């Protein structure tokens, strides 16, 4: 039987912070299922992260913690290629070559560069500026069809296509032109104590982290802002009742219940019963994730096995592309 070749998908994840309920319900939850349809490569983009100063021990810890959390959220290392960017030298190698096919003007126009150099005015380093050519290398090495990214990264994927086109123009068809893929978002989770803003690690009181202890999670839900209207009933109305609606959408995402079912369930109960019920449902959803992530982090040999096998697999594909590129630009074969 002939095996149908799956489409390829590549995505990088910056190991820059702890994952939270918004990341999970809005995106990561759906990633496990992608492996049925696509051949997926995911890497911890540690090389990108050092464009901004990091504490070395924190970067190392977060890289592993984040990898463990993604696995715990359902990214099966048997079905996906999971690795650490700096473990596959082809990224740095192709990154250099592509730097020479990326124009100063193009890099100057990147919004993320402008934003980040305004934010880190004391450290506008060369890496921050040329980051998009490294990202182009990350992508093009795997000849992917699709690159799942948030809206903020679309510009980088478009630049990647331009770089690939420029390279192909000089050297023939080397790179496949990838498409950005903006995944349909899951629940849009808002801050528990400021429901007009998205849940974010920068507002930790309204944010539920995946590895947080159940009692801390429950405390945050009990303190969640409900609305100052007088009816005190559980009803979905984003305009009039943003706090309650946010809790309903979280409850719906973790239980699968519809808004009508939730309204019926808490009819006449007031918020005193509703808030801890949402907290409890979230705790039960996150429990297996936290347990699995902790188990993985404590099993150093397992985690090491995952990222070593991932890097080996990734390097196999990446080196094929790199060899082609080196030959095309005129480097003597190693
Ligand atoms: N730049 C991306 C971000 O900041 C991370 C990233 C690095 C990436 N390399 C990538 C995403 C390649 C997709 C493909 O979120």
Q: How does this model look, in words?
A:
This protein is mainly alpha-helical. It folds into two domains: 7-186 and 299-329, Rossmann fold; 204-294, Orthogonal Bundle (Tyrosyl-Transfer RNA Synthetase). A three-stranded parallel β-sheet has the order 1-2-3, sandwiched between helices. A two-stranded parallel sheet has the order 4-5. Strand 4 (146-148), helix 9 (154-171) and strand 5 (179-181) form a beta-alpha-beta unit. Helix 4 (56-72) crosses helix 13. The two termini are 38 Å apart. It is elongated. It has 14 helices and five strands. The chain is 54% helix and 7% strand. Bound molecules: tryptophan. Tryptophan (TRP) is lined by residues 10-12, 14, 45, 48, 135, 138-139, 147, 149, 153.
Counting structural domains, the number is 2
Cα-to-Cα separation, first versus last residue: 38 Å
Q: Strands of the biggest beta sheet: in what spatial order?
A: 1-2-3
Q: Over the alpha carbons, how many angstroms does the gyration radius reach?
A: 22 Å
Task: Enumerate how many helices there are, as a single number.
Answer: 14
CATH topology (level 3) name of the largest domain: Rossmann fold
| Main beta-sheet strand count, sense and barrel state | 3 strands, parallel
Shape: elongated
Distinct small molecules: tryptophan
Into which percent range does the helicity of residues fall?
40-55%
The unreliable regions are none
CATH superfamily of the largest domain: HUPs
What structural keywords apply?
334 residues, mainly alpha, Rossmann fold, Tyrosyl-Transfer RNA Synthetase, 2 domains, three-stranded parallel sheet, two-stranded parallel ribbon, 5 strands, 54% helix, elongated, binds tryptophan
């Amino acid at each position: 039987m002939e095996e149908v070749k799956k489409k390829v998908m590549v995505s990088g994840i910056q190991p820059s912070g702890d994952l939270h309920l918004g990341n999970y319900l809005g995106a990561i939850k759906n990633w496990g299922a992608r492996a049925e349809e696509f051949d997926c490569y995911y890497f911890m983009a540690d090389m990108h992260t050092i464009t901004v100063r990091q504490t070395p021990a924190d970067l190392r810890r977060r890289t592993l913690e984040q990898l463990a959390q993604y696995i715990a959220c359902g990214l099966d290392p048997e079905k996906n290629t999971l690795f650490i960017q700096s473990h596959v030298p082809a990224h740095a190698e192709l990154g250099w070559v592509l730097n020479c096919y990326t124009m100063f003007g193009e890099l100057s126009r990147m919004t993320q560069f402008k934003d980040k150099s305004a934010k880190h005015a004391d450290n506008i380093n060369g890496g921050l500026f040329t980051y998009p050519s490294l990202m182009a290398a990350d992508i093009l090495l795997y000849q992917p069809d699709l690159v799942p990214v948030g809206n903020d990264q679309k510009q980088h994927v478009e630049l990647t296509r331009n770089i690939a086109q420029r390279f192909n123009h000089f050297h023939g068809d080397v790179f496949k032109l990838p498409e950005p893929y903006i995944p349909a978002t899951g629940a849009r989770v808002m801050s528990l104590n400021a429901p007009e803003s998205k849940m974010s690690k920068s507002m930790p009181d309204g944010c539920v982290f995946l590895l947080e202890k159940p009692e801390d999670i429950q405390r945050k839900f009990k303190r969640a802002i409900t609305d100052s209207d007088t009816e005190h009933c559980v009803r979905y109305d984003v305009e009039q009742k943003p706090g309650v609606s946010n809790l309903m959408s979280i409850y719906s995402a973790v239980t699968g219940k519809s808004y009508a079912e939730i309204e019926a369930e808490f009819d006449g109960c007031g918020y005193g019963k509703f808030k801890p019920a949402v907290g409890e449902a979230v705790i039960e959803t996150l429990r297996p994730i936290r347990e699995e992530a902790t188990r993985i982090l404590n099993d150093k040999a397992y985690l090491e096995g995952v990222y070593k096998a991932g890097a080996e697999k990734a390097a196999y594909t990446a080196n094929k592309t790199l060899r082609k590129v080196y030959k095309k630009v005129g480097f003597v074969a190693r």
